[in-house]
Amino acid sequence: MAGGRSELPVWVDVAVIPLLNLLFALVVSGLVVLIIGENPLEAMWIMLKGAVGSLKGWGYLLYYATNFVFTGLAVAIAFHAGLFNIGGEGQAYMAGAGAAVVGLSLEVLPWPIVIPLAIIASMAVGAFWAWVPGVLQVKRGSHIVITTIMFNYIALSLMGYLINYWFRPVGKMAVESREISGAYIMSFREVAREFFDLRLPSTPLNFSVFLAIAAAFAVWYLLWRTKLGYEIRAVGASTDAAVYAGIRPDRIIVITMAISGALAGLMAVNEILGAQHRLVLGFVQGAGFVGIAVALMGRSHPLGIILSAMLFGLLYQGGTELSFAKPDINRDMIVVILGLVVLFMGALEYAFRPWLTALFFRPED
Amino acid sequence: MDLYVEILASTIRYTVPLILACLAGLWSERSGIVDIGLEGKMLFAAFIAASASAVYGSAWIGLILGILASICLALVHGYAAINQRGNQVVSGVGINFLAAGLAIVLGNEWFREGGRTPALSGAQRFMPLSLPDLADVPVIGALVKIFLAHSILTYVAFALVPLTAWALSRTRFGLRLRAVGENPHAVDTAGISVAKLRYMAVIIAGTLCGIAGAFISTSLSSSFVRDITAGMGFMALAALIFANWRAWPALGACLLFGFLQASGTFLQGKHVLGFAIPVQFINMLPYLMTVVLLAGFIGKSIPPKASGLPYVKDR
User: Fold this and answer.
1) CA-CA to A331 of 20 to 30 Å: which in A109, B87, B129, B136?
2) C-beta separation of A342 from B127 below 8 A
3) Number of CB atoms found within 10 A of residue A57's CB
4) Are A48 and A318 in contact (CB under 8 A)?
5) Cα angle for residues B309, B312, B315 (degrees, 5° grid)
6) Which of A136, A147, A350 lies closest to B84 in CB terms?
7) Pairwise CB contact (< 8 Å): B93 & A289
8) Is pLDDT of A5 > 60?
9) Distance between CA atoms of A273 and A318, rounded to whole angstroms?
């Protein structure tokens, strides 16, 4: 994409540019805080303290990060194949139905069977919701970006219908399913109280955090240690060259979209089975879109994604604390930062490059 | 009968922001710049228009400032897409985030109502034209209600359809702009600045989104609330594809989608031919139809050739 421009050392590309972009995003957000009439440094300190200054802060940070690792990996693996899956939001939402159906209907079975099945169901439904746009692009030529946007809205209406008319118990006012007791993933707090008689602060952090780490490792292994991963990256780098190497891009696009959707679907495991314990209207709450920022920030590498997911987890938890401490600064400040990160990392990523290149290659060299 | 009149009248109302955003997308994409940020621009304009109107007491000042706010965001998108040759889809996503966040953060700071703006009334809103009360006259009363009882912005929006169609097919500027979206190299060779034309297109798109946003918060409703655009920017994008990137068909597509929105609102909880239609299925239809159309099952949609591609001058 940036032919002839990337003579910079790898560490500049991988670390300096993302950090510089993040810094700029934070400076611009700091200006917004300043306009509001608050002290940006004080605001940042409250955010940091709220997120990493206590066990409870860490619990929420990691719980948010778990969601973002899943949706970030979903966006990233599609990026590697040169695809832009904006549909993580809808894929995760639909996956909630998969998790709930299995969890609610197989209650009679023991949880060691039901939970894995519910996880597989989440992945399968998420995969299906991304697979269809993949097939439509390959077979019918409709663009994945547009189709996945449309699928987000279709999911929104469809889930609204399903939760309202199918999952909601008769006579219940709140638009949500009954408790999914068959696939109840206990939070660390409940585990500690139940089995170790320990008291932990109340956070929704649960075993899904390990699932997120496992997923990140699996994506790394898939992309850089398997034939399929090589083919995915080959298609992303150059479709023509991939064809020449005997790879069928159509097949890779469909498979990659399905994997991407399955990863997004895992978000429902953390949220529905691990935190809410019932299928709730609109539970994704933008995590699918945050995945775009996470993938861009993490340079589409699983390790980078874990780190940037934690960074956004910090922003989410810290932002919540900040809005309590300073009611003038609304929690939506996080959304401003997100937007700036996406703009700087994704659309203006080359803005710093000429400047950095000039720094590294002085004329006399 | 009254229900049908209501549905048709509100079809016209819902169509206004859709057609404005759709024309914005049309101008932008015809020049080769993909615009996912229609939603964000409309939202931010809606917020600024409602705020300015509340503070200054005039819907017109709200409209002008709303347009300016939307143009600012459009210029950010233009800078990313034209100067920086960044990914246009990503830039649009970023703008949607930025707009949604800024509107709530600034609104909360200015009015202390958690992101809402104060309720507007009188000159702070674009009100429907005041006409003699003909509600009792059989056919004419209904027709007046459907077609004439709207605010001035409604007629501006509809007038912009023939204007856009004419400008894009009959004027030198329009023809050049379309050429830039199909084959920028040829336009560059002819000695015309690709960047300048694309910036013009982006600014026009910003202006139209600005009018759409101002209409939503100062005419359709009477204040700004969180997520007030409710996906209309994306529905306009769908309409644009549905219309194959042409102005007159865009009007048709927007009227159709506007009608579906209006029916969804009015048919909620009502029975049609003995069936209770879940409103969710009506809401879903525009998107579903676009997917089916894109898949080539009804006609074929062909986007401008250079759409989404940054222009790099060959040396």
Assistant:
1) B87
2) no
3) 23
4) yes
5) 155
6) A350
7) yes
8) no
9) 25
Greater confidence (A333 vs B308) lies with A333
B217 CA: distance to closest CA in chain A (Å): 20
Whether the CB-CB separation of A62 and A237 falls below 8 Å is answered with: no
- In chain A, what are the domain boundaries? 67-299
Q: Give the torsion sign (CA, B150, B46, A293, A330).
A: negative
Single pTM value for the model: 0.90
- Inspect the interface and report whether the beta carbons of A160 and B280 lie closer than 8 Å: yes
pLDDT given at position B301: 67
Token readout for B255 is 């009227």
**What is the 8-class DSSP label of residue B122?**
G
Q: Which residue of A has its CA nearest to B114?
A: A330
Q: What CATH code is carried by the domain that includes residue B275?
A: 1.10.3470
Asked if residue A190 lies in contact with residue A198, where contact means CB atoms within 8 angstroms, the answer is no
Number of folded domains in chain B? 1
The count of residues in chain A is: 365
Asked if residue B172 is part of any domain, the answer here is: yes
Structural domain that includes position B114: 2-294
Does B289 lie at the interface with A, CB-CB under 8 angstroms?
Answer: no
**Contact status, residue A199 vs residue A192, Cβ threshold 8 Å:** yes
Is pLDDT at B1 greater than 70 in this prediction? no
Within 8 A of B241 by CB-CB distance, chain A residues are 146
> Residue A353: pLDDT band by 50, 70, 90 thresholds?
confident
